């Protein structure tokens, strides 16, 4: 690449880096809350939602904790902790409320392009698995957000609910299934495109092939965002009052370049993924559920295995996985130097500490990488005993960068989840991490607003509550409000059966 020619400078109120679901959500919120602000979105690729938000690059469950067993871990006394499941589900309900507002007020178009009803199920094998899932059901079904959850250990009933799981299974095998009808499949790529369409219609400048190279704080507290137009090979600088880094795996590097002290000590651990995709249309049509199992020992949460119905661009698909992989890239279209270039003197101990404490994870990833196609199909047969190798092909999933935070005892701790990092003056913020990610985007972006614009939250309160009626209240404690908003979103999002 030649040296970019010239440097064109412009001014704006807000710059959002990355054209994924996070930036699109934050942009839509700000457009409603502060319509007089100018907003620019910079995306290094040639189109929107091509990395973490892309339908083939994420799980699409709308991580609502209805079926994902990693959100209900076992406790030391043999019980089950449901607190994280409740928290994740509440955040997903916040997203549903905002999406409903978007459809009702023409921010968004046809919701069936990105959200569709699909049953969520949890499946386990063995006596210990049965005990765990039964305990989980007993606790969750008493909670108002999960009261429609059902449970069975009868193989005939399981075969009726999910034929591919029951077919050719040993009738004497101990199995259990919890299931709930209120689940959805979400195509976050299509949702992002609709949100960006709204932003473009209302004056937001969305720039593609715009790769941010540096972030520099000005003396007045604003930010100089330097980027290169990759198509024209031109350098540009935008002077922005507020910057949000929603660049997925690329966020760590950009926040490091900003020099804010809040990013010191934080590192990233990349985890890739692969799917098995069914090529037999007859099998695809026989399955209409997201069936989640238990993660292997040492596996990261994003690798919880599931037999997954997806609806992508109006067509049903069937996936199984993901199988974890590893590459030093921080993005699917990233560089092999992403990991080494993220190591700084201030985060070296954090990253080295994780290298020592997470040997089990490293061993798991090495084992996964060594699996042949037939070995992957053998894993699939735990869910679908009749699976045949010829009916499945491998596809590459997206990259995730798990957050590494400093720890005085071990040097560093690998954290699974998402984390907001912002400067003390609120002029810049970014989102790091992975699951539950996209499905809790609205709650995460409201968190960004409260951190970065605390003096405006009182003024914005009424407008936020118009978009998210439960804002500032607990759905778990206000069952009437939960039922009202759930039914409202069922209707608005065309999820009624």
Description:
- The chain has 497 residues and is an alpha+beta fold.
- The chain has a single domain, classed as FAD/NAD(P)-binding domain.
- The protein is built from 15 helices and 20 strands.
- β17 and β18 (411-415) form a beta hairpin.
- It is globular, with a radius of gyration of 23 Å.
- The model is unreliable at 1-5 (pLDDT under 50).
- Its cofactor is FAD.
Write a brief caption for the model.
The protein is an alpha+beta fold and 497 residues long.
Q: What are the main properties of this structure?
A:
globular; 497 residues; FAD/NAD(P)-binding domain; alpha+beta; 8-stranded mixed beta sheet; 10-stranded mixed beta sheet; disordered N terminus; 32% helix; single chain
Label the overall shape: globular
Q: In which range does the helix fraction lie?
A: 25-40%
Low-pLDDT segments: 1-5
Roughly how many Å apart are the termini? 54 Å
* Topology-level CATH name: FAD/NAD(P)-binding domain
- Counted by DSSP, the helix tally is 15
The CATH superfamily appears as FAD/NAD(P)-binding domain
* Protein structure class: alpha+beta
Task: Describe the sheet with the most strands.
Answer: 10 strands, mixed
> Average pLDDT across residues?
90
Strand tally, please?
Answer: 20
For the record, the CATH architecture stands as: 3-Layer(bba) Sandwich
Beta-strand content: 25-35%
Total number of distinct structural domains: 1
């Amino acid at each position: 690449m030649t040296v970019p020619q010239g440097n064109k400078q412009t001014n704006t109120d807000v710059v959002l880096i990355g054209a994924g679901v996070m930036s699109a959500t934050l942009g839509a919120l700000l457009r409603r809350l502060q319509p007089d602000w100018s907003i620019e979105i910079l995306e290094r690729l040639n189109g929107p939602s091509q990395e973490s938000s892309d339908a083939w690059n994420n799980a699409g469950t709308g991580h609502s904790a209805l079926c994902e067993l990693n959100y209900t871990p076992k406790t030391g006394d043999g019980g089950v902790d449901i607190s994280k499941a409740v928290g994740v589900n509440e955040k997903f309900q916040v997203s549903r409320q905002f999406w409903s507002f978007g459809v009702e007020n023409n921010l968004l178009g046809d919701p069936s392009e990105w959200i569709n009803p699909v049953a969520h199920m949890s499946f386990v094998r063995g006596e210990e698995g049965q005990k765990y899932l039964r305990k989980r059901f007993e606790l969750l079904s008493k909670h108002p957000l999960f009261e429609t959850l059902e449970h069975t250990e009868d193989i005939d009933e399981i075969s009726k609910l999910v034929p591919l799981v029951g077919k050719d299974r040993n009738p004497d095998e101990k199995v259990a299934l919890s299931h709930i009808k209120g689940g959805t499949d979400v195509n976050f790529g299509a949702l992002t495109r609709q949100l960006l369409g709204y932003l473009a219609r209302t004056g937001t400048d969305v720039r593609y092939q715009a790769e941010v190279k540096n972030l520099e704080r000005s003396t007045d507290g604003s930010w100089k965002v330097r980027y290169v137009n990759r198509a024209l090979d031109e350098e540009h600088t935008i002077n922005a009052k507020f910057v949000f880094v929603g660049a997925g795996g690329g966020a760590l590097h950009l926040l490091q370049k900003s020099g804010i002290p809040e990013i010191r000590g934080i590192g990233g651990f990349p985890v890739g993924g692969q799917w098995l995709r069914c090529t037999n249309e007859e099998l695809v049509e026989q399955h209409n559920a997201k069936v989640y199992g238990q993660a292997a020992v040492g596996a990261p949460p994003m690798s919880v295995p599931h037999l997954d119905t997806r609806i992508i661009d109006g067509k049903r698909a069937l996936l199984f996985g993901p199988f974890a992989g590893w590459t030093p890239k921080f993005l699917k279209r990233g560089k092999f130097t992403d990991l080494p270039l993220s190591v700084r003197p201030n985060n070296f101990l954090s990253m080295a500490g994780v290298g020592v404490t997470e040997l089990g994870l490293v061993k798991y990833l090495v084992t996964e990488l060594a699996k042949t196609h037939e070995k992957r199909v053998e894993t699939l047969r735990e869910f679908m005993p009749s699976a045949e190798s010829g009916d499945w092909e491998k596809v590459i999933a997206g990259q995730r960068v798990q957050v590494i935070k400093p720890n005085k005892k071990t040097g560093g701790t690998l954290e699974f989840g998402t984390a907001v990092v912002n400067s003390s003056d609120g002029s810049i913020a970014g989102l790091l991490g992975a699951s539950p990610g996209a499905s809790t985007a609205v709650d995460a972006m409201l968190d960004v607003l409260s951190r970065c614009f605390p003096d405006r939250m009182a003024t914005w309160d009424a407008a936020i509550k118009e978009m998210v009626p439960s804002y500032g209240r607990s759905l778990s404690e206000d069952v009437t409000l939960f039922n009202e908003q759930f039914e409202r979103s069922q209707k608005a999002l065309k999820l009624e059966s």
